[in-house]
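REVIEWER CHECKLIST
Item 1: Sequence provided? yes
Item 2: Single chain? yes
Item 3: Sequence as submitted:
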Amino acid sequence: MKWFSVLGTVMVLAICSAFTASASASASAVFCDTAASPCPSGHAYAPGTPLTSKVSLVYGMKITSPLLPLMTCGNGKADGTITSSGVQFTAFSLSCSSSFDICNVEGRNLPWTSVLSAGTAGNGTLTISSARLNFACSQSPPCEVEATGIPLGVTGTSTRVALLKIAATFAPVPNKCSASDSKKLEGAFEITAPKPLYVETQ
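Item 4: Structure as written out by the authors:
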């Protein structure tokens, strides 16, 4: 089983295109199928629209730790549904390995709710209220981690490669993971649906 840790509450996930840059968020927003602000009538993705993803073949996923060797994650997903205020994540998983261990990470306390706000040029921010992960590895003891008020940096996507980028530092849940076992998750999920996807004002 694999160990992750969620240090503090800093977890950054960026939905982006391979061809766009990130930007800061500000106002309320919707996910739109066109790059126009406000989102034109009939072009916002309706609540209940599935959001699915897979680990990006280009960016991949990696886990670094001061205690264990580098881990790479070839398979995984961060899935959910679009809501009237953001995204409700209903599934999160990764399959990872290193020279020392083989680990699976699964989302706990699902669904994770989030609120979307808009920035400029199709960019914005999702803020997840609370999230917990469980790590199960072949060599390491079980570990659970959690975070609250997690900001997700969102950049506008294109009609081609839409990404959900992650840069997350994890700290353990008391009594459920080694207090000294910090982990950092970095990489990206490719958004498989819906697309194109932009963050625009209503």
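Item 5: Key structural point noted by reviewer: The CA atoms of residues 103 and 137 lie 4 Å apart.
Item 6: Recommendation: ____
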